[in-house]
Amino acid sequence: MNKIFISDLHLSDDHPHIIMMFKSFLERLIKKNKDNTELYIIGDLFESWVGDDHETQLYLEIKNTLIKLASNNIKTYFLYGNRDFLIGDKFLKETNMTLIPDPHIFTYKNKKVLISHGDEFCTDDTEYQMFRKIVRNKDWQKDFLSFPISKRLKIAGEAQDASRNSKENKSINIMDVNQDAIKTMMSDYQVDLIIHGHTHRPAKHSIERNNQHCERFVLGDWTDESAIILDWSNEDPILIDLIN
Q1: What is the pTM of this model?
Q2: Backbone angles phi, psi at 225, to 5 degrees
Q3: Pick from 242, 240, 231, 195: which is nearest to 38 by CA?
Q4: For 37-71, what is each residue's pLDDT tens digit?
Q5: What is Dmax (Cα atoms) for the chain?
Q6: What's the total number of domains in the chain?
Q7: Using an 8 Å Cβ cutoff, are 189 and 209 in contact?
Q8: What is d(CA 200, CA 221) in angstroms, rounded to the nearest whole number?
Q9: At 41, which CATH number?
Q10: Taking a C-beta distance cutoff of 8 angstroms, is the pair 22, 222 a contact?
Q11: Domain encompassing residue 143
Q12: Listed residue (239, 173, 168) closest to 205, CA to CA
């Protein structure tokens, strides 16, 4: 079994090169597949998502691309990010993606693994955590999705502008994961390895917990210069840059 992990593509019409790179990546995945590949998309596949009823050209293009995975026996798992947590049953069914919870736990190659988008680990960013709690509330989501698409797009745009302005006034460390939050998660679930994205700081980290060596892999965001994913086809997982 080969497991591939990606996150933080932030697909949008503003970055057609990233869309093409994603489609090329999936085509290569299909060519290499021998009926034993699983793809995990762990958040922020899209830059923004205001509802499954907003069927743009990008929506249709990515839907048709993902459908090819299922038709070639590649199982695709999806976990919500902080940008696309409103993806609903319609899009999931159309693309044959399986929604998994955050965090998601499984055992692979004798290791207990936890995967998460990663934003929940950024506990020092209290402003964001308050916002996250609001928008992940089912009642809030139901109300938001009841608005006309034009209003949803306006709200989403204003939220993105506010997020960019907020980041300018925050230190880099505040927007990174809290190490105690990572260790707590590892201890609570007794895992050997954590895989996440969100921070856009791809790296492999070693962690000592109760005299046990553990690891944390951070995936990268996709840009014109870099697209770092995690490939676990062999005994040990490795970070790979699709561009360099």
Answers
A1: 0.94
A2: -105, -25
A3: 231
A4: 999 999 999 999 999 999 999 999 999 999 999 88
A5: 55
A6: 1
A7: no
A8: 5
A9: 3.60.21.50
A10: yes
A11: 2-241
A12: 239
Q: Is the dihedral of CA 15, 18, 22, 28 positive or negative?
A: positive
Question: Around Cβ 177, how many Cβ atoms within 10 Å?
Answer: 26
Higher pLDDT, 214 or 175: 214
CA distance 220 to 229: 7
Residue with tokens 């360099």: 244
Indicate the pLDDT class of residue 76, thresholds 50, 70 and 90: very high
* Phi, psi dihedrals of residue 160, rounded to the nearest 5°: -65, -40
What are the backbone angles phi and psi of residue 6, rounded to the nearest 5°?
-135, 160
Q: Judge whether residue 34 has pLDDT over 70.
A: no
What pLDDT shows up at residue 223? 95
3-state helix, strand, coil in the chain (%, to 5): 35, 25, 40
Angle, nearest 10°, between helix axes 138-145 and 149-168?
A: 130
What counts of helices (H) and strands (E) characterise the chain?
7, 11
In the structure encoding, which two tokens stand for residue 79, read together?
């976990």
Write the pLDDT tens digit of every residue in 141-166: 999 999 999 999 999 999 888 888 87
One-character DSSP codes across 41-105: EES-SBS----TT---HHHHHHHHHHHHHHHTT-EEEEE--SSSTT--HHHHHHHTEEE--SSEE
